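so my prof wants the structure for this chain in the tokens format not the other one, which i didnt know existed until like an hour ago. anyway here's the sequence
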Amino acid sequence: MDFDFPPDTLMLRDLLRRFIQKEARPLEMKYFNTGALTPAERAHLRSAIEQLGLWGVTVPEKFGGGGLDTVTACLIEEELGHTIIPVELGDIPPLLFACAGEQIQRFLEPALAGERHCLIAAREPRALRPAIWTTTATADGDDFNLAGRKALAALPGPDDFFVVFAKTPEGLTAFLLAASHAGASAAANGEIILTLRECRVGREAMLGAPGGALKLGAAEAPRAWIRAGARYVGLAERLIEMGLEHAKEWVSLGAPLAARPAIQRTLAEMRASVESARWLVYHAAWLADKGEAVREVAAEVRLFTGQMLQRAIDQATMLYTGPGPSPQIEPRRLARSVVEPDALNIGLEYAWTVVAAEMLAADNGR
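here's what i got, hopefully its the right format
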């Protein structure tokens, strides 16, 4: 394995790093307080990303994107993890690549162009596992009636759309649904909930095969897990940056917090964990770019980086305990702006399952 990144890759990373420092970070406090960017702010960020040549770089070439290699994509994800601002690169959920027929024009192409945003409506309030989801799609002639409640990561805009996971006799099935569709309403009250009541859709709304929702995007999933791990590394780096700055600046009992052995140990453990996670990510990315099967190692990335991030959040929170100024952005809320705790826990649970299953299968084959 070559531990040197190509010059072009490093140049791309440095361009994005400067962009985040200059354009994204100054918007953070406003975004943190309001939870949204104005249309003008989003348009400005989109224009800047396009000028940098980064729009669509992570989309596979067969769908009109840049087809960026996994290692470079991870460098980009790591930089994006340093900010809570949702910087868009034209990336889309891999399951949308299953669009067919009119779905391509209605959903896939507008999503690739950034004109419509896709929100995954899979998990349900207080229900992480698919086995206990209760949202149903009941056949009624050539149509389906969707009924149930789904948890969302964000409120949709009027032009956005959902991919709704619902139970059918064949199993969990995915449906494409415009945000403005009759019978679908999203509202925020502590958490963002999509309510489906008397929501009628045609068979053409089905994404992929009946009962095949959990298999959508499976071919792209391992690379997505690796890239998510890189994003977690960047977020943990941001938490270290915050904690280190606080420890050096806050003086207690005549000395900065950084002089205390307990604080030094915490910072050192955070650094070692992040570095370990970083090289697990890039080793997996390197294997993916070589064309090797990476499902198991990608699941290991998802498991290790997710646990590393959870520890980093706890450790960064601990650094701010006791007398002293509160952080402008509290570590847990900062992390939640990048990755929802439920989404992180779902990823961890699935990763445990994959890694254990691969280990047991390998052991039985001896």
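also thought this was worth mentioning. The CA atoms of residues 74 and 227 lie 5 Å apart.
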